[in-house]
């Protein structure tokens, strides 16, 4: 293990990107969840704080921090305080092994060309126009009854900031045009940027290993709270996660059989390109087509794994108050909340990686350049967002199952189906279909 | 340099938490400390260039077996009570066994360090190599263990069937 400065810098950039994504999953998904549920239930939803209620999550965060932190007298103090961290750490760390875009070689120098110049000028003009529009809209709605001063301020700040970026972009354009080409700073030129934090040979096992530790947060929280409802929630969570982890892991085995490796970058590379079905229909070579059964099992099991409706028995507010986090308040409760959404984000990214080709843009051979990187990053985000949206959609559409039905479903339906998927893959591989 | 830093950090964590497992009087805390100890052992495997073993260590021991242990201990210990101090004879036997085990390990480690016997052997620890050796060289022990596990599953099934038959008979009698 030897590092030099560009290596450390590149790793810091990767960690910054992934951490930025995974930490922002929570506020964005909370907004999507609340507005989405409102849309499904035909009501407005949170729309007071910020335009369209977009800054509601920040208000929630401020509220969480300012609330009193209560610890029950009978609770086991140390474990009660540690439990939210047990839950959060696996959720944050698992995303380290997921490749999020096509790797590219960093060019030695930026060279000015017409496209970049046009983009910069267009950006400057667009930002100026958007700023003016934002200020006008703010002034317009400010005159109406029911306008809050908070929203007024946000509108003004956004408008002024947008207008202020316009001359900056234009200045950048003028400077870049006069200079012609800029050498890549800090020795980054010529390096290969592999967009994954930990490209380990055991990629998928690492993810399963870390996510299997997530159950300790729930179990410890439930036990340490010294509350019957919490305990029931914790027991349910542990039983459910153990049962569904098996189906989840087994349904992913097909992917590993076809890829022949546990390394997730390799799994994604195997899925790029196309596969011609019956010599007629060109399909992207994604695992979802040959392993449809496994994909469905993985998808359903992921709902149980992240404790989401229709499988959210660990909190089931209609039955056991709030389950394992009944006694938690303020920021500790928020940590459980964050862990749930981060686990959702990670498992969505994992599903996209294993079955939908990860960052692969269908019908396009991504070049190993910055453009290919951006396009594949966009494809990865789009696929992940799709699964996250389905999480929300299902939560507000499907009612909660009965608990014994969940266990029966896990052991008697999904486990055999996952095994069936393995058999199908084992037959398809020698036939040359995968 | 990095390796040493990581090794000594996690070695210290493993030792401290193993001690907590034995010393702490609350069984739930002991179980959780054992999980931490297993996790630091997994880090040791990574340092020994055996990441596959590390992942299995975490998945099997920390992720599955200890969850079940914790589960049972929690259900048996809902009132957060602490274990009573064990009897002197138990303490004596436990300490003697642990001490003799420690002395044996230290003896063989010193022997290996002085005589340089059994140096780092050539070994491959990826999924493929382990799978090949398991299904070729060690196929008989592997199948024997499978039969053992199958026997355990069948036993559990029969036991649960019997108890449910008894409760059904009781319920029938009550009605």
Name the features.
heterodimer; A: 434 residues; mainly alpha; 2 domains; two-stranded antiparallel ribbon; B: 175 residues; Four Helix Bundle (Hemerythrin (Met), subunit A)
Short characterization:
The complex is a heterodimer of chains A (434) and B (175). Chain A is mostly helical and 434 residues long.
Report on the structure:
The complex is a heterodimer of chains A (434) and B (175). Chain A has 434 residues and is mostly helical. Chain A folds into two domains: 69-106 and 193-431, no CATH class; 109-183. Chain A has helices spanning 5-40, 56-66, 77-93, 114-142, 149-179, 203-212, 214-224, 228-259, 264-271, 292-305, 330-355, 370-395, 403-431, and strands at residues 104-105, 109-111, 181-183, 192-193, 274-277, 281-284. In chain A, the strands form three sheets. Chain A has a two-stranded antiparallel sheet. A two-stranded antiparallel sheet of chain A has the order 2-3. Chain A starts with a helix and ends with a helix. The mean pLDDT of chain A is 82. Chain B folds into three domains: 1-84, NADH-ubiquinone/plastoquinone oxidoreductase chain 6, subunit NuoJ (Four Helix Bundle (Hemerythrin (Met), subunit A), Up-down Bundle), CATH 1.20.120.1200; 86-123; 138-175. Chain B is built from six helices and no strands. Chain B has helices at 2-23, 27-47, 51-76, 88-115, 127-135, 139-174. The model of chain B has no long low-confidence stretch (mean pLDDT 81). The interface between A and B is medium-sized, with 30 and 29 residues.
Number of domains of chain B: 3
What percent strand of chain B? Answer: under 5%
How far apart lie the N and C ends of chain B?
Answer: 73 Å
- Low-confidence stretches of chain B at least 5 residues in length (pLDDT < 50)? none
SSE ordering of chain B: HHHHHH
Q: CATH-wise, what's the superfamily of the largest domain in chain B?
A: NADH-ubiquinone/plastoquinone oxidoreductase chain 6, subunit NuoJ
CATH architecture of the largest domain in chain B: Up-down Bundle
User: Using only CA atoms, what is the Rg of chain B?
Assistant: 22 Å
Strands of the largest sheet of chain A, in order across it? 1-4
Q: What is the number of beta strands of chain A? A: 6
- The total domain count of chain A is 2
Largest sheet of chain A: 2 strands, antiparallel
Discrete helix count of chain B = 6
Give start-end ranges of low-pLDDT stretches of chain A: none
Form type of chain B: extended
């Amino acid at each position: 293990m030897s590092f030099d400065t560009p290596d450390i810098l590149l790793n810091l950039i990767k960690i910054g990107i992934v951490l930025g994504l995974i930490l922002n999953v929570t506020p964005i998904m909370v907004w999507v969840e609340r507005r989405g549920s409102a849309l499904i239930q035909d009501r407005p939803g949170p729309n007071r704080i910020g335009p369209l209620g977009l800054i509601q999550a920040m208000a929630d965060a401020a509220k969480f921090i300012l609330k009193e932190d209560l610890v029950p007298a009978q609770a086991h103090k140390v474990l009660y305080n540690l439990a939210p961290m047990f839950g959060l750490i696996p959720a944050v760390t698992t995303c380290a092994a997921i490749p999020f875009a096509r790797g590219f070689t960093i060019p030695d120098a930026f060279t000015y060309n017409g496209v970049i110049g046009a983009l910069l000028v267009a950006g400057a003009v667009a930002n100026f126009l958007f700023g003016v529009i934002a200020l006008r809209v703010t002034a317009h709605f400010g005159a109406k009854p029911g306008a809050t001063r908070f929203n007024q301020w946000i509108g003004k700040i956004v408008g002024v900031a947008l207008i202020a970026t316009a001359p900056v972009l234009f200045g950048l354009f003028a400077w870049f045009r006069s200079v012609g080409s800029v050498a890549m700073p800090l020795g980054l030129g010529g390096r290969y940027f592999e967009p994954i934090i930990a490209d380990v040979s055991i990629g998928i096992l690492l993810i399963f290993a870390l996510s299997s530790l997530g159950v300790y947060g729930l179990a410890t929280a439930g036990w340490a709270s010294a509350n019957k409802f919490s305990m029931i929630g914790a027991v349910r969570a542990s039983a459910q996660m153990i049962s569904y982890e098996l189906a989840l892991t087994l349904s992913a085995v097909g992917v590993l059989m076809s890829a022949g490796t546990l390394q997730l970058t390799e799994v994604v590379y195997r899925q790029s390109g196309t596969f011609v079905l019956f010599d007629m229909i060109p399909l992207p070579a994604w695992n979802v087509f040959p392993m449809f059964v496994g994909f469905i099992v993985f998808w359903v099991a992921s709902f149980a794994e992240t404790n989401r409706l229709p499988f959210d028995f660990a909190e089931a507010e209609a039955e056991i108050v709030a389950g394992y986090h009944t006694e938690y308040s303020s920021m500790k409760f928020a940590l459980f909340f964050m862990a749930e959404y981060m686990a959702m984000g990670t498992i969505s990214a994992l599903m996209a990686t294993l079955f939908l080709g990860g960052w692969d843009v269908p019908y396009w051979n991504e070049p190993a350049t910055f453009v290919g990187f951006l396009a594949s990053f966009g494809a990865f985000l789009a696929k992940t967002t799709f699964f996250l949206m389905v999480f929300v959609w299902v939560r507000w559409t499907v009612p909660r199952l009965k608990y014994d039905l969940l266990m029966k479903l896990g052991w008697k339906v999904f486990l055999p189906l996952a095994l069936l998927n393995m058999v199908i893959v084992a037959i398809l591989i020698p036939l040359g279909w995968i | 340099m990095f390796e040493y830093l990581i090794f000594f950090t996690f070695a210290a964590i493993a030792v401290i938490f193993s001690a907590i497992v034995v010393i702490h009087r609350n069984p739930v805390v002991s179980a959780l400390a054992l999980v931490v100890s297993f996790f630091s052992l997994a880090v040791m495997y990574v340092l020994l260039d055996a990441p596959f073993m590390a992942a299995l260590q975490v998945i099997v021991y920390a992720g599955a077996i200890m969850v079940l242990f914790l589960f049972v201990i929690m259900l048996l210990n809902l009132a957060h009570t602490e274990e009573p101090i064990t009897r002197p004879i138990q303490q004596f036997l436990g300490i003697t066994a642990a001490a003799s085990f420690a002395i044996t390990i230290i003896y063989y480690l010193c022997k290996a360090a002085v005589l340089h016997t059994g140096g780092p052997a050539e070994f491959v620890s990826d999924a493929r190599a382990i799978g090949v050796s398991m299904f070729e060289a060690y196929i008989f022990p592997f199948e024997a263990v499978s039969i053992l596990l199958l026997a355990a599953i069948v036993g559990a099934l029969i036991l649960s069937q019997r108890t449910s038959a008894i409760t059904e008979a009781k319920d029938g009698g009550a009605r």
